[in-house]
Amino acid sequence: MAISRLFLTGILSTASLLLTPSQLTIAQSQELAPQEVSAITKPITVRIDGANQGSGIIIDKSGDIYTVLTNWHVVKDNGQYTIQTHDAEKQTVDYSQVQQLSDSVDLAIVKFTSTNDYQVAKLGESEKLEAGQKIYLSGYPGQLPNEPDRIYRFLTMNLEGIFPTPNKMGYQLTYRGGAFGGYSGSAILDETGLVIGIHGHVFYSIEGETFSYAVAIDTYKDLARQSNFEGEENQLIFDQNILDKANSLAITKQYALAIETAQQISSGRDLFFQAQKNISLWKQELEAQEYLSQAFKLAEQRTPDSLTRAIRTIRQVPSTTSSYSQVLPNVNDWSTEILVLAERSSYYSLEEAIVIARKIPSGTTGYRNAQSLIKTWEKRLNLNSRR
After folding, report:
1. In sequence order, what E strands does the chain have?
2. Residue 14 confidence (pLDDT) above 70
3. Which CATH number fits domain 2-219: 2.40.128.120, 2.40.10.120, 1.10.1740.10, 3.30.390.50?
């Protein structure tokens, strides 16, 4: 575990200014009991031994090859490493396959080969975290006094703060717990069992307090997309998260943002065609909103011509959109309003009343009444002309 014992002037006094919680709330499924979360995370948590000790989580499987996410400082020293899975099976790491993900983020991926079937971690969204919520740590601390070996441990704690941006090592989440060597690379999980961070750093103040830090899982996702090393299974998970976020935006009628979000799923991915289908529907929704906006602006003028144009405009709203339910009520209201204007005009000019009534489009509530009144007014004009 990377442990800083130097006291940096002002770091503790300014920490509270940096640890601002996200404004978003957790939008996951049902909250689980701690033992249920532990049952989820134990099979995906591995123990790393070798030149350094640490922990990690299985994030991908491709055939017999598994990919583990851990801290770079755990595996940065060249040497022999083994990975032990929850079933006590040990596999040798090919160090040539160890990959540092970024110079500025304390993350790395390690691969091992096994014919056994191991579960893959499900990743959450760290941007939705809030300070104060319950979180969990799952890993293998270094061998402690009176213990024969490193054993799996599951800790319960609270998220104390979130940096607005990651620090120079990529850490962003802070809490108190996991202050032992060997925990580096452990998963930080939310109350639904999704991985939301990778534990890796502890700071000791001169007062004896400890502050633990984790890399937010969204930081890993960003690196994965940029470097295209996330793996097929997690690529699908990432894309499903993107699509879910886009769908949530669409539910609140934020169609432009929904389209922008879904467009992150590029051609060739499993969810590409579903994303494009949704984008097509959302573009129709945007088009429908524009027609509605134009129609309402026209109707505000309250003249026969503007109301007629409003009816023609709103009728262009696609029938497959959520806005279509507003078409018929407004069409009927506006046609009735034109009819009222025609009737008022009939008191001083039958010719003008007929002109206005003829503006009422067919298929509206006012159309049939308008046609009847036009006939009546034309008869009156003929009688007047014979006198």
Report:
1. 2-4, 45-50, 54-62, 65-70, 81-84, 90-92, 99-102, 105-113, 134-139, 153-158, 161-162, 171-175, 187-189, 195-204, 210-216
2. no
3. 2.40.10.120
Query: Is the Cβ–Cβ distance between 234 and 228 less than 8 Å?
Result: no
Type and span of the H or E element at 224 = helix 217-227
Distance between CA 53 and CA 184 in Å, rounded?
A: 8
Strand partners, 153: 139
What digits encode the pLDDT tens for the residues 328-373?
Answer: 999 999 999 999 999 999 999 999 999 999 999 999 999 999 999 9
- As a whole number of angstroms, the distance between CA 158 and CA 132 comes to 6
User: Which of 302, 295, 310 is closest to 361 using CA atoms?
Assistant: 310
Cα 168 from chain centroid?
25
More confident call, 3 vs 87: 87
Torsion over CA of 88, 93, 97 and 99, rounded to 10 degrees? Answer: 70
The DSSP code sequence of 247-279 is HHHHHTT-HHHHHHHHTTS-TTSTTHHHHHHHH
123 secondary structure, DSSP code: B
pTM confidence score: 0.56
Rounded to an integer, the average pLDDT of 83-90 is 95
As a whole number, mean pLDDT of residues 270-281 equals: 92
- The full set of domain ranges for the chain reads 2-219, 231-387
Place of tokens 């993900």: 101
- Token couple for 121: 């971690």
